[in-house]
Amino acid sequence: MLLATFKLCAGSSYRHVRSMKGLRQQAVRAIGQELNRRALGGPAPAAWINQVRRRGSLLGSQLEDPLYSDQELAYIQQGEEAMQRALGILRDQEGWKKESRQANGDEVLSKVIPDVGKVFRLEVVVDQPMERLYEELVERMEAMGEWNPNVKEIKVLQKIGKDTVITHELAAEAAGNLVGPRDFVSVRCTKRRGSMCVLAGMATRYEEMPQQKGVIRAEHGPTCMVLRPLAGSPSRTKLTWLLSIDLKGWLPKTIINQVLSQTQVDFANHLRKRLESCPALEARC
């Protein structure tokens, strides 16, 4: 049964049957049912079954909307991969070095990751419920330049389905103008997992947003923010931000490290001020 189901699913990948939405839906539904049956009827599913189930779930969600182009599917996959890699970095608790700790408990850690470079991890507690942070960081993403002076502008270039967007971000100069203007083109993916929300992204190419004159095109590595209610205090939120950036250009590593760690500290402070001055989205600050 499972082999036949895989053949059905694989057949839907051929170009001449991509337009047959019913076939693709049938394939995804059948493979999901078969995997669930095997998982419930025997021992814990193997790693490959979990992987197929995740991919089947992703494809199933895609089929709820009009069919995507090959490029749009590539963006969706890139966002998913960025999220998995970023979460994998956060799950590994070994090797983190303390960069700074503020009086309010905000902490920045760092670690060198092979094939990625130095990454920074911000750990803070915000005295607002998770839904409020979600509103500000996801639903009002384009308004970030209004309250975060490190960001001049964020624009959503394209929205793909419910969870994926392509964005262009123009960053302000930093370190007393030693770090000139940078911009970023990124694919961003947002997922809810129970009471946890994950916002992830990484650099991508977007033909309609070529490199701008006088601005260095920097790149986000796998990066993410994890939001979850604070244990024992659901009206407060634990925020973890993994930051990985290649600023490009000729910059000493000491300046880069200082700028990135300070950017995280500043972000937490500016976010708190924003939430205090505008406690609810309906207030239309």
UniProtKB/TrEMBL annotation:
Pathway: Steroid metabolism; cholesterol metabolism. It catalyses: cholesterol(in) = cholesterol(out). Keywords: Lipid transport, Lipid-binding, Mitochondrion, Steroidogenesis, Transit peptide, Transport. One of its GO terms (biological process) is intracellular cholesterol transport. Residues 67-280 form the START domain. The keyword Mitochondrion applies. GO terms for molecular function: cholesterol binding; cholesterol transfer activity. Pfam families: START. One of its GO terms (cellular component) is mitochondrion. It comes from the Eukaryota. It is found in: Mitochondrion. Its main location: mitochondrion. Coiled coil: none annotated. May interact with TSPO. Plays a key role in steroid hormone synthesis by enhancing the metabolism of cholesterol into pregnenolone. Mediates the transfer of cholesterol from the outer mitochondrial membrane to the inner mitochondrial membrane where it is cleaved to pregnenolone. This is Steroidogenic acute regulatory protein, mitochondrial. It comes from Moschus moschiferus.
